[in-house]
Design a protein that fits this description.
Number of strands: 9
Shape: globular
Structural class: alpha/beta
Number of helices: 10
Helix content: 40-55%
Strand order of the largest sheet: 3-2-1-6-7
Radius of gyration: 18 Å
Amino acid sequence: MTPSRVVIWFSAGVTSAIAAKLTVDKYRDVLPVHLVTCDTGSEDEDNYRFGTDVAAWLGLPLETIRNEKYEDTFSVYDSVGYLMNQYGAACTIRLKKQPRRKYENLETDLQVFGFDADERHRADRFAENNPEVRAWFPLIEAGITKDTARQMLKAAGILEPITYSQGFKNANCLKRGCVKGGMGYWNHIRKMRPEVFDNMAKKERELNFALLKRGGVPVFLDELPPHWGDYDSEPGFQCSLFCGSHI
């Protein structure tokens, strides 16, 4: 069936912004284009500014969807009693997957994702795990990397989310921290946002679950040595329709 609308999944990151621009340029005069974001309630405040700026640049309204049952990621953990299990992060399933599944129309939507040219393996994995989704990855098709996307956004006069200037690789859930991050990520959180680190360390103990492991042994955040992990060399992670951990 020919798609009847295009849905851009906007994550408040630079790559999804450029993916949205490429999509609008290609489809604006062909099909209805929707710019959609899932609000987890745990985003940095500057993400909302960024979303507003990008929407204005594209000339599209930013549609915000969310699971009204939960205030933020911590309310999910408290409700279900765990942070992660073999199926992924509890927050991704309830705050990203469920609202998206409710919004999407698998028969008629062309769905756009901001995987960049260095993430072809992630896009391939997504396509393999979600064969029912008619997906388009414009950055991969155009050979655009994340660095190039940042340059394009700068040239357009759009200030990227403040989290990038703080050394973070993405802008996801910085008010709470991402449970898919590794040791280097969490030590960077401890340096840049100590209150976020402390709150997650307490939540780990409340739920008796360590996000990190070393040699197969669980390592709670309040036991994590500050010198463990190298954030620059750690694998990147996405919060999207699929969820994977690095523990």
